[in-house]
Amino acid sequence: MVYVKFFGSARVKFEKKEMEADCSDIKTLLQIISKEFGVEVKDVKQFLVYVNEVNINKLKMWRTKLSDGDKIMLLSPASGG
Amino acid sequence: MDTNYGAYTGKVVNIDLTTKEITGYEFSDKERELFLGGKIMAAKIVYDNIKTKIDPLSPENMIVVTTCPMNAMGSPCSSRFNVSTISPLTGYYTSSNCGGNFGLNLKRAGYDAIIITGKAEEHTYISITDKGIEFKNADHLWGLKTGEAQERMEGKGGKFVIGPAGENLVRYACVVSEERSAGRGGVGAVFGSKNLKGLFASGLKGPAAKNKEALMEISKAWTGRLRAHPTTGVQLPALGTAGLVTPMHAKNLLATNNYRSGKYEDFEAISGETLRDDFLVKNKGCVTCPIQCGRVVKVNGKDVKGPEVETIGLFGSNILNNDLQKILDWNNEMDELGLDTISCGNTLSFAMELNEKGMWNNGLKFGKIDNIDQIIDDIAHRKGIGDELAEGSKKLSEKYGGVEFAMNVKGMELAAYEPRGAIGQGLGYAVSNRGGCHLNGGYMVVMEGLGLSINPYSTGAKAGMTALFQDLMEACSAGGNCLFTTYAFFPMILLSKPNSLITRVVNKFATGFGLPVRFILRFPTLIAINMPANMLPHPKALSAATGMKLNFGKFIRIGERGYNLERMIDVHLGVSAADDELPARLTEELQIVGNPKSKVPLDKLKKAYYKNRCWDQNGIPKKSLLKRLKIAEE
Predict the structure, then answer these.
(1) B239 touches chain A (CB under 8 A)
(2) How far apart are the C-alpha atoms of B446 and B628, rounded to whole Å?
(3) Which of A79, B93, B120, B341 is the right S-S partner for B195, CB 3.0 to 4.6 Å?
(4) What is the CATH number of the domain that holds B367?
(5) What pTM was computed for the model?
(6) What is the residue extent of each domain of chain A?
(7) Does the domain formed by A2-75 have CATH 3.10.20.30?
(8) Per the CB < 8 Å rule, is B453 touching A50?
(9) ipTM score assigned to the predicted complex
(10) Radius of gyration of chain A (CA)
């Protein structure tokens, strides 16, 4: 089981704080999220994705493997203030 | 006085509080072309009048309140006005920008700018209307907080007042219009030193735009783009600037424990998401703003303005406080007392570390919040240790030591961005004209993690980008638009699709753009185009409003002129490369153990920055540059 938290525009879009998912990679996780909220996978791919506080850009992007207990964050694509 | 340009009133006056004389001040159309308005117009006036070091709290200091050409023109986010002076916090030039309605009213009253000099004998406020200017007794307002002072100041129009902090010469006191502050640099203390409680302005009709129809068309498209943009159309309206707390934590940028870390384990408790879910009553913005990034929250049952990200960082993570309701309470109280929340919070965290290290026994501790209410009040009234805290972190470090962790530059406390997670932002803080300011520093965090994600530890192109963004924001401010309108400068795809191939390529290779950026900086006027797809509508809008012929290149050059003019004021006041420094914590201590790049390589960045700026090794603009910018040195 991995733990997903929604922040920024992901929180606004899905109106949900967090969820749990049973999956072993990011690609599958995004499919689960897309199904859960009735959106296309490409819409989920617009968010920044962090695994245990590391951006998947520094890992293997969508092929990044997940392990039990991993903490995933979905963040706004960009922020400003 | 008069002007042939649209969008200006053509009138600037000097108001002498000592003699109560009001005289016209010559500001020609040629000067309008060169210095545009707002903070650059103010810089020109200060530059021409203050040539040597002065005591900022003496009658010799001047307050210059300037409107901008875009004010009252009906464009989006165009209510920003400016106040400039010599800062009692830094001893150098400061300009502070405010979104309250005072600027619009000042312009409608018939003034491009007012210059306030001298010192009133009695508590005074100045009434500026289209009927004339009057000195009014302010005994009944003295001692009042900013909200009540505005309520009790006579007349219907724009008000701009100090609270007890300004009256008591707290070096980081601000000035407030509606609920918006001209926050930084201690302008409120300069008001207080002149016995000036505030300003009132009112008028029925401002100047017209030169080409009203063209301006309306540009403004309509501009508003549409701001609403469609992921940052100004989604993120900021939904979460306010507080929405930055989470990405700042994720990217090691959230000042924590007096800048000993860029991450705060309880970040969620103080995040923009929690503010939205648990505290938000509604959005609110400055007049003329389609973004509406302001938050309305409840404090003691009353609807008040919520905190910005800087306040949340400095009164949250940086003092290890996870109680967001208390931050809302303190934010409101500081607005009422007229205190800059950034300098106040940062000074408190410094005092906490002094206490922790046994260097000053003051009762302040990280994570201990039960005495903060009282301390804030004591600072504003200069009671007990509040009297010392009212001096700011630099003066405290001179007395108690700890200069290496007194988080200020030139005496102005840093904002909540921890620059070891974005070294370009570190450079910006160091060289910023007004001191440790994230915005005047160029706001490189938006390139290094919050908007784009270029390598935050690379020095490549950072010096040039810092200068370019400083110039861009300088010109934007002078025109009168909120800096948030510059987000549209970034192609939408780069901000809306961070995982796309094109965005990743830009992020990877942007640090190699040093030469092109340097070319733009050196020859901006060769870029005699307007940016496509309304990326940067400011020059076109300003052209339609004023009748000047502006384009991207000329706009950047105006910004460059302004930035260098401000630097020259500081040079006259004694600034040099030795002042463009960061506290040693940021340049010598690693933010992340095991990551040798997680500190700011300031010497290298500074050298490159001076080269990009055409400044000499001591940080002084070269004569050839001043000549090119038409800044005359006697």
Answers:
(1) yes
(2) 30
(3) B120
(4) 1.10.569.10
(5) 0.97
(6) 2-75
(7) yes
(8) no
(9) 0.96
(10) 11
